Amino acid sequence: MRTTQSGFTLIELVIVIVILGLLAATALPRFINITKDARVASVQGVAGGLRGAASLAKAQLMVSGSAGCGGTSTLNVCMDGVDVAVASTGYPTGGSGGGIVTAMQGTDGYSISGAAPLADFQPANGGGSTCQAEYNAQYGSVTVNSDGC
């Protein structure tokens, strides 16, 4: 009696699945670009750090006054043993060498620019001028612009 085959064998199906898996593993990374998502997340993380540093500096000013770490400086607060310059609003000053940069205590991977009361934090590994977190010392506010990331 003769039997006719009516479908694929298990071995043939397994081989096809393995081939499709290999093709997907080599082709998929070319279609997925997560660099932009990583830059956006990084800028949002720095923005959170800026908000936290500004709030902590203002709280420190309210608690201990503006005498700084040595007790003689004016418009400085002592944060973790470091003098941080604060504006008349009580928030850390802006600018590329301002108080917010000192309050952050670590801005590796970011280029900092801007004139007081503003400070712009841009990823050093690219993203353009519209991929940044901008700190405003007048209001202690942080604005995230991730359009150009």
Question: Quick recap of the structure?
Answer:
This protein is an alpha+beta fold and 149 residues long.
Give an overview of the whole structure:
Strand 4 (118-123) and strand 5 (131-136) form a beta hairpin. The chain has 149 residues and is α+β, with helices and mostly antiparallel strands. It has helices spanning 10-31, 35-64, 99-104, and strands at 76-79, 82-85, 110-113, 118-123, 131-136, 141-146. The strands form two sheets. The chain has a four-stranded antiparallel beta sheet with strand order 3-4-5-6, covered by helices on one side. It has three helices and six strands; from the N terminus they run ααββαββββ. It is rod-shaped, with a radius of gyration of 27 Å.
Instruction: Order the strands across the largest sheet as they lie in space.
Output: 3-4-5-6
Radius of gyration: 27 Å
Strand content: 15-25%
Broad structural category:
alpha+beta
Helix/strand layout:
Layout: H1 10-31, H2 35-64, E1 76-79, E2 82-85, H3 99-104, E3 110-113, E4 118-123, E5 131-136, E6 141-146
Antiparallel strand pairs: 1-2, 3-4, 4-5, 5-6
